[in-house]
Amino acid sequence: MGVSSAQFWSRYGNVPLQALAGTMEVSETDDDDVLFCAEDGGGVAGRGCHMDYLLAYAVAELLLSIHISLSNLLVLYVYLRKKDVRTVTNTYIFSLALTDFLAGCFGIPITIISVLTRRPQSFYGCLFVHLILCILCTISTFHMLAIAVDKYVTICCRDQLFRSRHSRAVFLIALSWVSGTLIATLPLFNFFGFAETESAFHAVEDQCYFTKVVDYRYLVYVIFVGTILAPTALIVFCYVSIYSRIRKEEIQIKFLLRKSERDRRMQGRRKLIRILLILVVSYGICWYPLYIINSIDYFWPEFSIAGMTLWAVVLSHMSCALNPLIYAYGMPGFKKALREFFNIHTDQQSNTGVNYSCYLRSSGPPKTQSSLNGRLRRYPSESRRKISAPTPLIKRNLNDRRIRRQTIDVS
User: Fold this and answer.
1) Long-range contact list for 148-151, CB < 8 A, 24+ apart?
2) Distance (Å, rounded) from C-alpha 348 to C-alpha 357?
3) What is the pLDDT, as a whole number, of residue 15?
4) What pLDDT is recorded for position 231?
5) According to Swiss-Prot or TrEMBL, what is its membrane topology (predicted)?
6) Using one digit for the tens of pLDDT, what is the confidence trace for 90-108?
7) Which distant-in-sequence residues (6+ apart) come within 8 Å of 73 by Cβ?
8) What is the DSSP string of 230-293?
């Protein structure tokens, strides 16, 4: 999780003074500090290598922060400006984009500043700073679970839990924010001993290191098991159940609908499920490596692969950067709205012409437009009517014949 960006530098940033002096002696308080980039025992080379990794980390995080902020801000803007995008599913995406935007705009920059300056130098201040990204990322995970539960209830339970799908969305989104915040802030209250004592913090001269203020038990048992593994299992269950239900419905409606209508309905559902699965799989690829490394460090410290922590931290933050790309090229409505935002003209204009191909024209003041083969033509609103509707001339002739027939019958 984003909090482990500081965890990496708690591991490698706290370089022992003895190592910098050229010796290999390590004190008890620095037993987990490894100079993986200075094989010659440290010295100036080790210090320079440490600074190179620090600068590389800061630059990578800063670039990711800018991309995450701008891309998710665009998703928020499109949702607020386009009414046709405000579907129930996209409401979850809006809330998720808001979480990612806060992580990119505030969470990552604050963590970078803390890593570079080792501030704040107070115990609870340091703990709170490194829990900001933990809060946002936990909320983001629960949003993934909320989307899966919403789809499961809608398709498999036929909305039996809530009469209104909108009320269910509001409830699940609010539950994601509240529960994510409460779980991620457990170390602040220290009811279960998830935060180290202030003595451990003062032992490193009041410098802000993540692993000096947060216990590994919290990272492994609460965050990894409680907010990564358990939600993943529930999400997989929901989507497997949804897929089974869709397959069952395909067999049931096979002879009830026309093939074109049946294919259209099933293709829409399959596409939506496919996009949501891509979203979840990308999240797992981004986050699992970091917490697998954390688990190895906690249970088997002798097999620690701490040298890969840096790349796992950067990979974890890419989850927030990938989400807007998935929305833009997959979710219904977002792709079209984003193309309109960037004023990108595609072959979809010809599709608009096809939609109007069932309309005829007559005289009248021009008020509407239609597009055909890339050319804009103005048609009057009175002239737009379905081909299936009778023309005014035919109506008039039918009325005249009816009147004549009635006259003949009377006479």
Assistant:
1) 148/234, 148/235, 148/238, 148/239, 148/276, 148/280, 149/234, 149/238, 150/88, 150/89, 150/92, 151/89, 151/238, 151/239, 151/242, 151/272, 151/273, 151/276
2) 14
3) 39
4) 92
5) Multi-pass membrane protein
6) 899 899 999 999 999 999 9
7) 101
8) HHHHHHHHHHHHHHHHHHHHHHHTTTTS-HHHHHHHHHHHHHHHHHHHHHHHHHHHHHHHHHHH
CA distance 287 to 307: 17
What's the fold here for domain 4-341?
Answer: Rhopdopsin 7-helix transmembrane proteins (1.20.1070)
3-state SS of the chain: helix, strand, coil percent to 5? 75, 5, 25
| Cα 76 from Cα 98, distance rounded (Å) | 7
Q: What is the 3-state secondary structure (H, E, C) of 67-135?
A: HHHHHHHHHHHHHHHCHHHCCHHHHHHHHHHHHHHHHHHHHHHHHHHHHHHCCCCCHHHHHHHHHHHHH
| Beta strands in 14-67, from DSSP E residues, in sequence order | none
* CA dist., res. 138 & res. 133, Å (int): 8
Q: Please, what is the Cα angle at 108 between 103 and 110, to 5 degrees?
A: 115
E strands, 130-226, are none
Decide if 162 contacts 109 (C-beta within 8 A): no
Position 406 confidence tier, pLDDT thresholds 50, 70, 90: low
The answer to whether the beta carbons of residues 216 and 298 sit under 8 Å apart is yes
pLDDT at 133 over 60: yes
Domain range list for the chain: 4-341, 348-410
Which token pair is 327? 């929305």
CA angle 181, 184, 187 (to 5 degrees): 125
Distance CA 366, CA 380 (A): 4
Q: How far apart are CA 335 and CA 90, in angstroms?
A: 12
CA distance 54 to 112: 10
Q: Are 358 and 338 in contact (CB under 8 A)?
A: no
Task: Flag the least confident range among 16-20, 135-139, 187-191, 244-248.
Answer: 16-20
Predicted TM-score (pTM) of this structure: 0.71
More confident residue, 34 or 259: 259
Highest mean pLDDT among 8-17, 128-137, 156-165, 207-216: 128-137
Residue 169 confidence (pLDDT) above 60: yes
Backbone angles phi, psi at 359, to 5 degrees: -115, 150
- The answer for residues whose C-beta is within 8 angstroms of residue 182's C-beta and 6 or more apart is none
Of the candidates 221, 231, 77, the residue with the CA atom closest to the CA atom of residue 139: 231
